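Before the break, one more example. Copy the sequence into your notebook; we will annotate it together after we see the structure.
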Amino acid sequence: MDTGGGGGGGGGGTSIHITALDGIVNVNSLFTLAAFIGLAWRPSADGPELADGADRLGAACAAGDRVESDLVLFHVLAFACFLFSSIVALCLKQIVRTHPHYRRGGSASAAVSRTAMINRVALRVGILASAVGSVCGCGFLMMALVNVVQVKLGRLGCGAGGAAAWGAVVPLVTLVPTAMLIYIGIVFYAFTR
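Here is what the structure looks like once it is written out:
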């Protein structure tokens, strides 16, 4: 990244950026683990969870092959998005920390302050790309969980059997998008400052 004042460059405040990037990596690590565990659990037509579900709900309410394939697809997409977001955030951290103007200031008794002269436009675009990866990963993980609910509790459009599925899905599709909208708003606010 460029140093100096030209091309949107600026100095100072990079400890805030490092903290934000650390937060993105930490949260993405948890979600990546969840997506990976979801990939490890692959329902099969012979599996006991589907056999029990088919007996309990009836063949009409049991999730089909399409739901199962979407379940795996959405877990893979969520995993890819979280991995992309984490790698971008880690790269940005390394660029800031290995930059020639990155230094530690202060005395032994004072708090350590970290500053660097970096291209803020490039840093903001990188943080925005990492945030977009996190948001997309959350969306795909939410859709994968909707499919998990359908595998476990029955299809959403299946009369009385679908009531339990709707009871699980409605809070999921209400709370997760609300949290993502708040996150997008905060990222947009930080991006414009």
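Helices lie at 14-40, 48-57, 65-98, 120-153, 161-192. The chain has a mean pLDDT of 74. Try to locate both features in your own notes.
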